[in-house]
Amino acid sequence: MTATLEQALSLQERDDAMTKIMIASQPMTDGQMENLVDKFRAAVRRHRAEFSLDAVQQVLGIENLGMECLAPFRARVEAISNLIVRRVTVNRTCTPQEAIDATGRTQYTDRTIVDAMPRGEGEETEVIFFNLGRYVSDDNLDKEYELCGLIPADPYSLAAVNEADPTFADDHPNATHWKDSSGKWCYAAFDRFDDDERGVFVSRSGDGWHDAWWFAGLRK
């Protein structure tokens, strides 16, 4: 996005960006949660004859069954809001390389940049992802973060999201960026290739970002 286009950014686009963050700051109410549970309970009751007692008992013993049931609901909400929020626990005591290794992905990294990655703060972190739907340079991406009331997520937090959910980048290639001690843009990015390889990239930036990327931010 050129400087001319940035100047032409409409007020409506700016309002939309702020609306995204307002949505994220207002979690679902207790009433909405009870409504969701009631709908699920009614559906199970309606179809209970289709499930055998023994099989159901085994399924109820599955670890993280609740998270599996939550996944399709989360996918529908994210598709409507075009905003993704992930809350993760971040291990900031490990080395930068260990944070990348923990994701279990094929690595395409510059070790000197990995070693200098910002560590960030806080054990529990809320990471907010937004998608612009258009090309953006690193300089202008920083302005988009500002418009959204966010700062770029530190790579430790981003790595923690992709470690907790290795499938996230399959449909949501995601990234963050920062400047090194020389003022050069660097980035960490997570993606999946056509051959089903999941990769992580840490390097210096230069070409900007195409419209498919989701950018990770933290509240100011």
Mean pLDDT over all positions = 88
Kindly, what is the distance between the CA atoms of the first and last residues, rounded to a whole number of angstroms?
Answer: 24 Å
> Would you count the extended β strands for me?
8
In the predicted model, the low-confidence regions spanning at least 5 consecutive residues are 1-12
Q: Which class of secondary structure composition applies to the elements?
A: alpha+beta
Helix content: 40-55%
What would you call the shape?
elongated
Please summarize the sheet with the most strands. Answer: 8 strands, mixed
Radius of gyration: 20 Å
By DSSP (H or I, 4+ residues per run), the number of helices equals: 10
Report the sheet-strand fraction: 15-25%
Order of helices and strands: HHHHHEHEHEHEHHEEEE
Question: Can you characterise this structure?
Answer:
Strands 1, 2, 3, 4, 5, 6, 7 and 8 form an 8-stranded mixed sheet that branches. The protein has a domain at 83-220. The longest helix has 18 residues, at 30-47. The chain has 220 residues and is an alpha+beta fold. It has helices spanning 3-7, 11-24, 30-47, 53-60, 65-81, 96-101, 111-115, 138-147, 155-164, 168-171; strands at residues 83-89, 106-109, 124-131, 150-152, 174-179, 185-192, 198-204, 214-219. It starts with a helix and ends with a strand. It is built from 10 helices and 8 strands. The radius of gyration is 20 Å and the shape is elongated. Strand 5 and strand 6 form a beta hairpin. The chain is 44% helix and 22% strand.
